[in-house]
Amino acid sequence: MLKLIMTGIWVAAVTLGSVYFSIQMSKAPDPADADAAKKAVQQLVRGEVVTYPVIAAGRVEGYFLARASFVTDKTKLAAITLPIPALLTDELYTELVGDKVIRVGENRNFDLKAFKERMKSALNRKLGDEVVLDVIVEQIDYLTKEEIQDSISKPGASIKHGERLMDEKVPDDIPLADAKSENSASH
After folding, report:
1. What is the pLDDT of residue 10?
2. Are residues 44 and 170 in contact, defined by beta-carbon separation less than 8 angstroms?
3. pLDDT tens digit string along 147-160?
4. What is the pTM of this model?
5. Across the chain, which distance is largest between two alpha carbons, in Å?
6. Which of 15, 6, 128, 122 is CA-nearest to residue 70?
7. Which stretches of 47-130 are DSSP H helices?
8. How far apart are CA 102 and CA 112, in angstroms?
9. Please, are residues 132 and 70 in contact by the beta-carbon 8 Å criterion?
């Protein structure tokens, strides 16, 4: 009789252990853990403010002032030997001047999401891996040639006009690449 009771207790313990283990294994992963793991490999690389000419009918009509930064996978970024900020500047130049993605006068039709995805794809294609996770367009302003000339002709004047086309905020929760790691990526 004692043997039968011990066998019943053992079967009940194994059954309860199996049920507990299968419930723990079937739980969906915690999204907070997935987000934390994703954020752990992200690093922000800030771009420089760069001026791009807008040329129409063989003459300069105005200038884009642009600054873009991007979120990278820092483990993959460490393997890159190319100067990352220079690649970003080159891609912005290609998009804004070469491909004329933004057409002056038609700015209301500009699709920021498509522009960012296009830049991300082009940069990752150049780098040969999914290094760039997101592009942040911090600033794209357009200044006409006349606005610049007016500000230069008046002593002490600054440019107060111009058309702000884009203005995104850089995320605070992604660590910024330090100057040492940016320089090592550029050498």
Report:
1. 92
2. yes
3. 877 777 776 656 55
4. 0.61
5. 107
6. 122
7. 74-77, 84-93, 112-127
8. 10
9. yes
Name residue, tokens 């082009």: 122
Terminal Cα distance for the chain, rounded: 80
Q: How many angstroms separate the CA atoms of 34 and 130, rounded?
A: 19
Q: Determine the CATH number of domain 41-185.
A: 3.30.479
Burial of 87 per CB tally in 10 Å (0-12, 13-18, 19+): buried
Domains of the chain: which residue ranges? 2-29, 41-185
Which of these ranges, 80-89, 106-115, 131-140, has the smallest mean pLDDT? 106-115
Tell me if 56 sits within 8 A of 62, measured CB to CB: no
* 137 beta partners: 68
* Listed residue (97, 22, 114, 91) closest to 60, CA to CA: 97
pLDDT band at 184 (very low <50, low <70, confident <90, very high): very low
Q: Are 112 and 166 in contact (CB under 8 A)?
A: yes
